[in-house]
Write a structure and sequence with these properties.
Elements: H1 18-24, E1 30-33, H2 40-43, E2 49-54, H3 57-78, H4 88-100, H5 104-117, H6 145-155, E3 158-162, H7 165-171, E4 176-180, E5 195-196, E6 199-200, H8 203-219, E7 224-229, H9 232-237, E8 242-251, E9 259-269
Parallel strand pairs: 1-2, 1-4, 2-3, 4-7
Antiparallel strand pairs: 5-6, 7-9, 8-9
Helix pairs in contact: 3-5, 3-6, 4-5
């Protein structure tokens, strides 16, 4: 079966872990994702329905527009993928325009442009809620037309929601399956990668997510699969789950030499 890539570049995207995730995801009528991110799992599974949520309003706005108006959006977005637009000054001008704009459609176009031209697929905001990822300096940023078209086709089966994971999990009903890809726990005290949107996903949040997953499985008979780093902390949080260890490649520095193989956990609550 062909794997489909997401149209967004996304730090922590699940493309490389798809085979493992698919192997451990139970069957059901609806897949619920409280941290949809770039949507690799959604794009490569076959449920009747999807409920896809994230706290990033720009992400959900973009997905909703593509669901309802994909051909126009793809046509308008192509304009931003020219050699003239791949310039640091032009990028920073458009980043400023994005932060100043309240127009949903224009923000969606610029969100895609900034994502494909910004540094390393990062999606980062400052405490004022302003997008602040620097210019990426790519030779020729790729315009993901085929990926956008596949997303638009799949999106017809999906409901998108901008809300917290607590809200999403409170809505889940029997017959659904939940996949959670939270901001990962740091591998060490010096590698704190938990900043997500303008919030910080703390150890307390990680523990709460695990508790809610356990309750869903026990009280509503809803299976929940969570991915995270394999650490002493995650093993403690997920002690009520069945743990599967998977190994993946991860870039942890700017140089290619910084790519290393690390263990991750897939914690399944049933």
């Amino acid at each position: 079966m062909k794997k489909h890539r997401a149209f967004l570049k996304w730090a922590g995207g699940k493309y490389l872990l798809l085979d493992d995730i698919q192997r451990h995801l139970p069957q059901g009528d609806c897949l619920v994702e409280p941290f949809v991110g770039a949507g690799s799992v959604f794009l490569n599974t076959d449920y009747k329905k999807y409920y896809l949520a994230d706290i990033n309003s720009d992400l959900i706005n973009l997905y909703t527009i593509i669901k309802h108006n994909s051909s126009q959006f793809i046509s308008d977005a192509r304009v931003f993928f020219t050699p003239e637009m791949n310039d640091a000054d032009v990028y920073y001008t458009h980043r400023r325009l994005f932060n100043e704009s309240a127009d949903p459609y224009y923000r969606a176009l610029l969100f895609l442009y900034l994502n494909r031209h910004g540094y390393n697929g990062l999606c980062r905001y400052n405490l004022r809620g302003q997008f602040n990822v620097p210019f990426g300096r790519y030779v020729r940023p790729y315009f993901p037309q085929a990926e956008l078209e596949w997303f638009a086709e799949r999106a017809q089966q999906a409901t998108f929601a901008c809300e917290s994971y607590v809200q999403t999990l409170s809505r889940v009903r029997k017959g659904s399956v939940v996949y959670c890809d939270p901001p990962y726990a740091p591998l060490s005290s010096t590698a704190n990668f938990t900043a997500y949107h303008t919030n910080s996903f703390t150890a307390k949040e990680q523990a709460l997510l695990a508790e809610l997953a356990h309750k869903l499985a026990q009280k509503k008979d809803v299976p929940v699969l969570i991915s995270n780093h394999d650490t002493e902390s995650t093993r403690k949080w997920y002690q009520e789950a069945t743990l599967h260890i998977v190994t993946t490649r991860r870039s942890i520095s700017r140089s290619a030499n910084g790519r290393t193989r690390i263990d991750e956990l897939l914690a399944l609550y049933t």
